[in-house]
Amino acid sequence: MRFLVVLGGLCAMAQSWPDYGGGPDAAQYSPLTQINRTNVRKLQRAWTYPTGDSNKYFFNPVMVDGTLYVLAKNNSLVALDAAAGKEKWTFDPGPDTKVITNRGINYWESKDKKERRLLFASNHRLRAVDALTGKAILTFGQGGSVDLKEGLDRDPKTIALVQSTTPGRVFEDILILGSATNQGYGSAPGDIRAFDVRTGKLVWTFHTVPRPGEYGHETWPAEAWKSVGGANVWGEMSLDVKRGILYAPTASAKYNFYGADRHGANLFSDCLLALDARTGKRIWHFQMVHHDIWDYDDATAPKLLTVTHDGKQLDAVAQVTKQGFVWVFNRVTGEPLWPIEERPVPKSDMPNEKTWPTQPFPVKPPPFARQKFTVDDLSPYLSPADRAKFRDDILSARNEGLFTPPGTRNTIQMPGNNGGANWSGAAVDPSRGFLYVVSKDLPAMLKLEPEGKAKSGFNDSPEQRGQMVYQAHCLNCHKADRRGAPPAMPSLDDIAVRMPRERIVAAIRNGVGPMQGFPKLTNVELDNLIAYLYNPARARATVPAGTSWADAERYLSGFGFMIASDGLSPIKPPWSSLTAYDLNDGTIRWKIPLGDVPHLAAKGIRNTGSHYPKVGPVVTAGGILFAGTRDRHVRALDVDTGQALWEAELDAALEGMPAVYSVDGRQYVVFCAAAQVGLTPSAQGKINGAYVAFALPEK
Predict the structure, then answer these.
(1) How far is residue 242's CA from residue 25's CA, in Å, rounded to a whole number?
(2) Which of 459, 484, 495, 533 is the most buried (most CB within 10 A)?
(3) Closest alpha carbon to 176 in 93, 271, 273, 106
(4) Terminus-to-terminus CA distance in the chain, angstroms?
(5) What is the tens place of the pLDDT at every residue in 581-620?
(6) Do 316 and 223 form a contact (C-beta atoms < 8 A)?
(7) Is 260 left (phi over 0), alpha (psi -120 to 50) or beta?
(8) pLDDT of 387-423, one tens digit each?
(9) Cβ atoms within 10 Å, residue 105
(10) Torsion of CA 586, 590, 596, 600, to 10 degrees
(11) What backbone torsions phi and psi does residue 16 show, to the nearest 5 degrees?
């Protein structure tokens, strides 16, 4: 989207960044060329805007008509002068902003530009704000908001979580939204919905767990739609605006790691969906994982680009995944550009589980992540104790590749359920057919434990229920005795006396060091978890003595990230990589480690890749790829070689993607630097968060 602005009688072209990822196509691409290979080394700070608190942020700013919209000041929306970083207005969504669209927002304007709105969600309610004044639009929905828990064929009171922290996509006068459901049993359905941007009224719904009579219903048990949740789009979507097609990558069905209550292939979980953006009708789909029990969500936006294939120009869509695959399809028909093979995979030994006998593997392009983890792959930087431990763990685990089914014995998962590509993790040069992917290698070890039935006198106390939350999310890292593996995974045994409640809540919600945050936990689950941490003696074992496997019915597993005592991955570096593809012929152009680990770099150990990244690249027509990493560095790389052309160090770590735009003929690159740097508790400190803009020197 471009705008003409008139200044002092001179007409200048302003290139905006009007939506999350740069625009509805989610290309993470800018056609600007002022900053290029020849001058990028001259970049300097143009302005800095502190976030005004110590919260963690990874927000992708939106810029339209010289105004930059950011998230800061305790999750408030702030409008800035995009050229100077000066504050114009602030909108505080209210006291309960624990769950907010904190990765980005959506912008909409009427054809005559008289109406301009920012659309976002907080506390499970969709809201609209006047983009010019920062005032809430009270005519939107009911009193200014829409309850996202309503209209899902479930009692809203039973839905703990439905709002994603990722924004939707604006198409014409509708906003299309995904959702974030609980990770456990009985979570909310993952319906994709469209709302009128003026009124907030529901326009259409696509059921990702099909109802009776709908396409795909036969891939589930007949009544599964009433109780099974997930198959949701918690990550990113993209739009072919010209054709009116929405591309939506879906997540696994819930529960993530055990599917005895959902026999079948489970459409439309783990699919790339192509929907009519006006009606929500399915055009085509492809399922990347049948009956997912590995949490192999597709979180990265599908990338729209034009390639030369078999000698002809073809509009394609490319989807990258946690497994390290790149899937490339004809954007209109859904036909794959290269063969996809259904290959036999290991069977599950879990009671009542029926894994799908085959899984699809793309023959081309080659994967961007490592897909196995053996003792030969252990990191040279492990301590002797860690090396011995991980060696024993690996040799005693079931380890049969990408689709090793979780069971009651440890199973290896590589690149892991939090590995591969994640949200914001890819960008394209849409006209050249080039794709750039950031990935991380973070092996996981999964083990299922039975979840006991709720019986008389069992699981009645907050501590008992909190113990179940602990076992589902915390056990693998902090251990059954809650003593962890210091210093990377600190002991929680004495947490009640050394840490106030508000700090515990912040750590659980937002994450700290190598620990991911758990914003999807409900307030009740969080209260129960803290009750258990404060009073573990009041909790009984999750499964009472004598409970048989047949009676347990359900099984729980944490995410099982394998992390050494220094907070690093046990696999040899690189821990994160940037891979460039030529999708005209399905080949890798180059691959480099992305970033460093500060305490290793201080010892002269470089090019390890930053640990535990969720960072997004942005590509420009000037031949530059911009990216920030957890090591506090921002970099400009040559898109054709991966060579570093410029870098700068900021005051805080970075996650998410930058924004690229121009105002009054000057090009800017803005980074959100407001994440944790340290990997161990001793290295944690207050986040000096800020939005930092870089530009070439003014003439």
Answers:
(1) 10
(2) 533
(3) 106
(4) 27
(5) 999 999 999 999 999 999 999 999 999 999 877 899 999 9
(6) no
(7) alpha
(8) 999 999 999 999 999 999 999 999 999 999 999 999 9
(9) 26
(10) 110
(11) -90, 175
Within this chain, domains 2-446+565-695 and 449-556 share the same CATH topology: no
d(CA 98, CA 94): 10
The strands making up 282-287's β-sheet, listed across from edge to edge, are 238-240, 245-249, 271-276, 282-287
From the CA atom positions of the chain, what is the Rg in Å?
24
Q: How many CB atoms are closer than 10 A to CB 525? A: 22
Residue 697 burial by Cβ neighbours in a 10 Å radius (0-12, 13-18, 19+):
exposed
> Taking a C-beta distance cutoff of 8 angstroms, is the pair 624, 433 a contact?
no
For residue 647, is pLDDT > 90?
Answer: yes
Strand partners, 691: 49, 672
Parse the chain into domains and list their residue ranges.
2-446+565-695, 449-556
Give φ, ψ of 265 to 5 degrees.
-75, -25
| CA 204, chain centre distance (Å) | 25
Instruction: Determine the Cα–Cα distance for residues 690 and 685; give it in Å rounded to an integer.
Output: 15
Instruction: Please state, in angstroms and rounded to a whole number, the distance separating the CA atoms of residues 551 and 627.
Output: 50
Contact 14, 662 (CB under 8 A): yes
| Nearby residues of 91 by Cβ (< 8 Å), 6 or more positions away | 76, 77, 78, 129, 134, 135, 136
Place of tokens 């056990």: 475
C-alpha to C-alpha distance for 485 and 562, rounded to whole angstroms: 11
- The CATH code for residues 2-446+565-695 is 2.140.10.10
Instruction: Give this prediction's pTM.
Output: 0.88
The region that residue 437 occupies, defined by phi over 0 for left and psi between -120 and 50 for alpha, beta otherwise, is beta
Q: Which residues pair with 7 in a beta bridge?
A: 10
Q: Give the Cα-Cα-Cα angle 124, 250, 239 (nearest 5 degrees).
A: 85
If one counts every other C-beta atom within 10 angstroms of the C-beta of residue 485, the result is 19
Look at the block and give the residue holding tokens 């892991």.
416
The pLDDT tens digits for 131-189 are 999 999 999 999 999 999 999 999 998 888 899 999 999 999 999 999 998 778 888 99
Residues with Cβ within 8 Å of 345's Cβ and at least 6 positions away in sequence, in order, are: 355, 356, 357, 358, 359, 401, 402, 403
What is the distance between the alpha carbons of residues 671 and 650, in angstroms, rounded to a whole number? 10
d(C-alpha 310, C-alpha 293), whole Å = 37
Q: Which amino acid does the sequence have at 69?
A: Y
Q: In what order do the strands lie in the sheet with 169-171?
A: 169-171, 174-177, 192-196, 202-206
Left if phi > 0, otherwise alpha if psi is -120 to 50, otherwise beta: which for 600? alpha
Q: Write down the residue that tokens 């120009």 correspond to.
A: 313
Measured between alpha carbons, how far is residue 535 from residues 243, 464, 500 in Å?
Answer: 57, 10, 14
Q: How far is CA 477 from CA 438, 491, 506, 540, in A?
A: 25, 10, 18, 20
Element containing residue 282 per DSSP (H, E) = strand 282-287
Say which residues have a Cβ less than 8 Å from residue 109's Cβ, sequence separation at least 6.
64, 115, 116, 117, 131
Q: Could you give the CA distance from residue 440 to residue 697 in angstroms, rounded to a whole number?
A: 35
Number of CB atoms found within 10 A of residue 348's CB: 23
Would residue 478 be called left, alpha or beta, if left means φ above 0 and alpha means ψ between -120 and 50 degrees?
alpha
Tokens representing 392 are 């024993």
Give the CATH architecture of domain 449-556: Orthogonal Bundle (1.10)
